Amino acid sequence: MDHKLKLLLSFGGKLFLYYIGLMILTLATGFAVLFLNWHCGCAEALWGDASVVAQINCVGQKAGKDTYDAEVEYRLIDKAELERLTEQARRTGQANVQLDVFGWSYNFMRIEFFPLLFLISLILAYPASWRYRLKSLLIALLLFIPLSFILLYAKFLYQMHLDTTVFSHYQLPGFWASFMRYLSLSLAEARFIFILLLWGVVMVRWEDVRAMV
After folding, report:
1. What phi and psi, each to the nearest 5 degrees, are found at residue 20?
2. What is the pTM of this model?
3. 3-state SS assignment for residue 18
């Protein structure tokens, strides 16, 4: 068998085994839910008060969803309305305020976790030394995870734009609303495309490309 074909088949086989193995391991050990909760807490710490319009709270894994279908739930509160009702309650002596909140959830496994496992598998399956693979993995994670939080914040803004009740007064500029609409339609697919590009930048060496040509 041709040496190049053997390398490609070996890479493909290792990629499949690493991906399935990581999926089973992380789901069986509960790491997937731990990562969901960590991501959720970081998102609230980063973006909870970043917007002048909304206060963003992470509820955590959506009730009724099991480990294999984990959705993460967020609640967005209109800051202006919260301030108005809080001041009203202070003047009237009310102990609590009641206001409408906007709830939004998304499939964390499909959008965040499984693409991350795919990126890790791509790097671990690459025919290179372990030192090179681990160094590339660290660089890839340092790029992928921040992008994940940036895209999530963009989704917060877009979901507020779509809301017709709590945030009916908030609208994105026309171009960004259209851009986010198309991005949202292919969010998981776009994430995998970005992963392939990221993997190519941090992992693939020119000498490897020349050897395969």
Report:
1. -65, -40
2. 0.86
3. helix
Look at residues 189, 172, 168, 188 and name the one whose alpha carbon lies nearest to residue 180. 172
Please check whether residue 177 is in contact with residue 171, taking contact to mean a CB–CB distance below 8 angstroms: yes
77: three-class secondary structure by DSSP: strand
Q: How many CB atoms lie within 10 A of CB 63?
A: 8
Check if the beta carbon of residue 115 is closer than 8 Å to that of residue 195: yes
- Express the helix, strand and coil content of the chain in percent, nearest 5 each: 70, 10, 20
- Residue 177 CB burial class (10 angstroms; 0-12, 13-18, ≥19): middle
Q: Angle, to 10 degrees, between the axis of helix 114-125 and the axis of helix 130-162?
A: 160
Give which of 193, 189, 186, 111 is closest to 152, Cα–Cα. Answer: 111
Q: Give per-residue pLDDT as tens, 95-145.
A: 676 778 899 998 898 889 999 999 999 999 998 899 999 999 999 999 999
How many angstroms separate the CA atoms of 74 and 8, rounded? Answer: 42
